[in-house]
Write a structure and sequence with these properties.
Blueprint (H helix, E strand, L loop, with lengths): L1 H11 L5 E7 L18 E12 L2 E13 L5 E12 L7 E5 L19 E2 L8 E5 L2 H7 L2 H9 L3 E5 L2 E7 L4 H17 L9 E2 L2 E2 L1
Antiparallel strand pairs: 1-2, 2-3, 3-4, 4-9, 5-7, 5-8, 6-7, 8-9, 10-11
């Protein structure tokens, strides 16, 4: 944890990262779409929020303790480091994740209308899970390079409106969160031109 504290001190003084907040309310994360991974269904604790840019995308980095009911002691706490990128347009709610990052969450990755999450072909290591409210979009966007980037980064990511939310396990120093955000931009760069018809800005197709 000392590495996390050292990272917080350093980035609070970094002019490229601003608006540091020690904590945020549970309601603050509603903008990123609940219910949905990686957030808890019972309570969420958000700490060490910083804002800046990663490869041209506005980025928000923070540590999350997501709580759900269940388990031996009545609740289960899942710790994540989270990066949220603001996109120039909205895309259909979609999620891809390394399976071990989401199994303990005890919830579906997206709201109920998304349908049942699909496991990517058996034999893949690590095991991967994908889900989308728009199967046609998912078929175009979730390509083998996208899955490979996600697996290599041991991360999960989710699209919600004009946000891309990514997460890795446990609280990590900010340089690891920036690395997460950079992997997310690599995923976005792999989206083919054929996904453009799904992009929406101010309610209009772009």
């Amino acid at each position: 944890m000392w590495q996390v504290r050292k990272s917080v001190r350093a980035y609070r003084q970094d002019p490229e990262w601003h608006h540091y907040r020690k904590s945020e309310s549970g309601d603050w994360i509603n903008q990123f779409g609940l219910p949905g991974h990686p957030f808890g269904t019972f309570r969420n604790h958000i700490h060490n929020v910083v804002e800046g840019q990663v490869r041209g995308y506005p980025a928000t980095l923070f540590h999350l303790a997501g709580v759900r009911k269940g388990g031996r002691y009545g609740t289960v706490v899942n710790m994540y480091s989270v990066a949220a990128l603001t996109l120039p347009a909205s895309l259909p709610d979609t999620s891809v994740s390394v399976g071990t990052l989401v199994y303990r969450l005890g919830e579906e990755p997206l709201p109920p209308q998304a349908g049942t999450p699909l496991h990517l072909p058996p034999g893949r290591h690590p095991r991967m899970v994908k889900c989308s409210i728009d199967p046609a979009f998912a078929q175009q966007a979730i390509t083998e390079p996208v899955v490979r980037i996600t697996a290599n980064a041991t991360m999960g990511w989710r699209l919600h409106k004009n946000y891309m939310i990514g997460w890795i396990k446990e609280r990590k120093p900010y340089d690891r969160l920036i690395g997460l955000a950079e992997s997310m931009t690599e995923v976005l760069a792999e989206f083919p031109p054929s996904v453009r018809p799904w992009a929406v800005h101010d309610g209009q197709r772009v």
